[in-house]
Automatic annotation (TrEMBL):
SUPFAM superfamilies, alphabetized: NAD(P)-binding Rossmann-fold domains (SSF51735)
GO biological process, one term: secondary metabolic process
Protein name per UniProt: (+)-neomenthol dehydrogenase
A cellular component annotation (GO) from this entry: cytoplasm
Family membership: Belongs to the short-chain dehydrogenases/reductases (SDR) family.
GO molecular function: oxidoreductase activity
Matching InterPro entries: Fungal_SecMetab_SDRs, NAD(P)-bd_dom_sf, SDR_fam
Sections of the chain in a coiled coil: none
Species, as recorded: Penicillium subrubescens
């Protein structure tokens, strides 16, 4: 089959900001969205929900991808390769914020496994498919957080500093993700694959226990902008957010 729409894969797209991102892309009629989730049933259920809003209901494909499982990631890459032969845009959205009631080492291990190691392995597995794409605006978007900015954590009298929001495990995972973004933005520059960090902000989702200043759709719009709008050359290697933190990495 021939696919004329840009092909986008989103990890963790079955709920929250990932789901809202998939909804916005699917409703634009410009993208074929690979809806990633840890299990086939979750991915398929998300696609069924999204099809009510999609302009082209056939432009949604469920894909099983558990970012903590290398075999799952490899199988997802193989499935994309066999069905499509390429990938145009990758959005690394899957993430976790806390591991309640676990020993400290286990808290860090699980959070880094998803937020850092998972992203690194997914990029490594899917990069050949991005390199195989003839799309003129290939991008990798890593969903980060302002909490990962060292300058924000240490800024006195700031609402989201580390005194108000301690979370050193989550903060450090997103700081590591920002470094992955910066490094890959330079590594892939000559291949014209933009690598961008996008911070959706404090959104009301299950991830935040329903707390936040924004709706999931508002946070998703930041990710969509990073994935599809503005100049990829200018955005690559940068951190974008509606809040305009301006505090550096």
């Amino acid at each position: 089959m021939t696919y004329s729409k840009a092909l986008v894969l989103i990890t963790g797209a079955n709920q929250g900001i990932g789901f809202a991102t998939a909804r916005q892309l699917a409703s634009s009629d410009k993208f074929h969205v690979l809806v990633g989730a840890r299990t086939a049933s979750k991915a398929e259920a998300a696609v069924q929900q999204l099809q009510s809003d999609a302009v082209d209901k056939s432009a949604l494909t469920p894909i099983t991808i558990d970012v903590t499982d290398d075999a799952s990631i490899a199988a997802a890459a193989q499935a994309v390769s066999e069905q499509f032969g390429h990938l145009d845009i990758l959005i690394n959205n899957a993430g976790i914020g806390q591991v309640p009631d676990a020993p400290v080492r286990e808290q860090y291990r699980q959070i880094f496994d998803v937020n850092v190691f998972g992203v690194a392995v997914v990029i490594n597995a899917l990069l050949p498919l991005l390199q195989a794409s003839e799309y003129t605006d290939r991008r990798i978007v890593n969903v980060t957080s302002g909490l990962g900015q060292i300058s924000m954590a240490g800024k006195k009298d700031y609402a989201f500093n580390a005194r108000a929001w301690f979370a050193p495990d989550y903060r450090s995972s997103k700081a590591a993700l920002n470094m992955i973004t910066a490094a890959f933005s330079l590594k892939l520059a000559d291949e014209k694959i933009a690598v961008i960090a996008a911070a959706p902000g404090f959104c009301r989702t299950n991830f935040t226990g329903g707390q936040g200043k924004k709706e999931a759709r508002d946070g998703a719009s930041v990710i969509v902008r990073a994935a599809t709008e503005e100049s990829p050359e200018e955005l690559s290697g940068t951190f974008i957010a509606d809040e305009g933190f301006g505090l550096g990495w």
